[in-house]
Amino acid sequence: MSFPPSVLLLDDGELGDVRRLLDEIGVDFVHLRGASISDGLEPPRDLLLTTSRRAQTIPRATSPDGGVPVRVVVANEEAETLRERLRRDGVDFLVRRPVHSEALRLLVLRSLYRGPEKRRGIRVPFGVAVECRVGAIGTDAVLAELSTGGCRLVVPRTPQPLAPVGAGLVVTIPPSEDVAEPLSLYGTVLRTHEEDSDEVSLAIGFGDLDAAHEAALAQTLLRRAVGHNGSPSERREHPRRLFDETITALNREASSALVGRDVSLGGMRVDAHPDLKLGDELVLEIYGLANSEPSEVHATVVRDDGPDGFGLRFDHVTPELARRLEELVTVLPSIEPLGDGESAAMGTVLSRIIPES
Questions:
Q1: Per DSSP, which regions of 36-101 are E strands?
Q2: Cα 248 to Cα 144: distance, rounded to the nearest angstrom
Q3: pTM (2 d.p.)
Q4: What is the count of structural domains for the chain?
Q5: Which of 150, 156, 168, 199 could make an SS bond with 195 (beta carbons 3.0 to 4.6 A apart)?
Q6: Is residue 104 located within the same domain as residue 24?
Q7: Along the 357 residues of the chain, how does pLDDT read in single tens digits?
């Protein structure tokens, strides 16, 4: 895994469902819990997911690449003082439980999407034996996960830490049946976590790689991401296409997610989106209450407000749809944007653009 990762998840054990969601999406993320959370953490590249207790752990700041990550707090409690504190802390969204699982997924995807050309760092589970060397000391390790920016190793516990935070090490991945040479990568220990009484997990960041190591790492990821079926020539030919299809599918799903505001029977305002333009006709699934089915709505983009987003007009509103839309207006939203004040957050929904059949 790379650090800072695309997504950083901080909790004290309450956000297991959020972790499962991130695992399902396959995005590059780091999950820190309890005592493993320390002061001075760098912000993630794209998205911080945390609890109200941990919201102040990472001050509002730009990520190392100059972007401003989206900050989301997931909370069970409801209090006006909580909302105001989170707003002062620079939190972008407050997610109140219960929340529709698909709405939360759309929020995560939308927070990661920056346009059609954005590519994510994908983590790939490995579970293979590798060699880990710290200076002159070498040990066997298990490569649990690998991404373009780093990895997670599981090493035996030793009386003295093999590789404390800040230590440099070399990870050597053995050759596969169609690759003759092992791949050795230099990295730095960013985080450690005690897995159990016998093992320690190390989060390793690779830093900048030269072109040869970067290409070899990419090929290792591609082969693992799409499996090992077929002949060596087929594996060389197909991984890039299949990997690109995976990235394209994620981007397509992310680009379909819209954050809607000011919902009424006539329409709603949606946040700025790089793929929308005046006159577009859309079919949307709007997610409201946690246990309810989404509402299908036909809409037309009728207003372009620049950085403030777009105005959508709802078309062909049936009496049943009108009743469900009225429900959304009157209840406190499960996912509330905090940047524009409380009144602007009423009638907030997450929706998905349904592709044309």
A1: 47-50, 70-75, 93-96
A2: 25
A3: 0.65
A4: 3
A5: 199
A6: yes
A7: 445 678 889 999 899 999 989 888 877 778 888 877 776 677 888 899 999 988 887 766 655 555 688 999 999 866 667 888 888 888 999 998 889 999 999 999 888 876 544 444 556 777 889 999 998 888 889 998 887 778 889 998 888 778 888 889 999 998 876 666 899 999 998 878 776 678 888 888 887 778 888 878 877 876 665 444 444 444 344 444 544 555 566 677 778 889 888 888 999 999 888 888 999 999 999 998 787 889 999 999 999 998 889 999 999 999 999 998 888 888 778 888 887 655 555 668 899 999 876
Joined tokens for residue 259: 């954050």
Range 180-205 burial, b when 16+ CB lie within 10 A, else e = eeebebebbbbbbbeeeeeebbbbbb
Q: Is residue 1 included in any domain, yes or no? A: no
Last residue of a domain, one of 82, 112, 142: 112
Interatomic CA distance for residues 119 and 250, integer angstroms: 9
Q: Is residue 181 part of a domain?
A: yes
Domain presence at residue 339 = yes
Q: Let me know whether 266 and 339 are in one domain.
A: yes
The stretches of the chain forming alpha helices (DSSP H) are 16-25, 80-88, 101-112, 211-225, 232-237, 239-255, 319-330, 342-345
Q: Is residue 247 part of a domain?
A: no
Examine the domain organization and report whether 230 and 274 are in the same domain. no
**CATH code at position 315:** 2.40.10.220
Query: Which residue segment(s) compose the domain that 212 sits in?
Result: 124-241
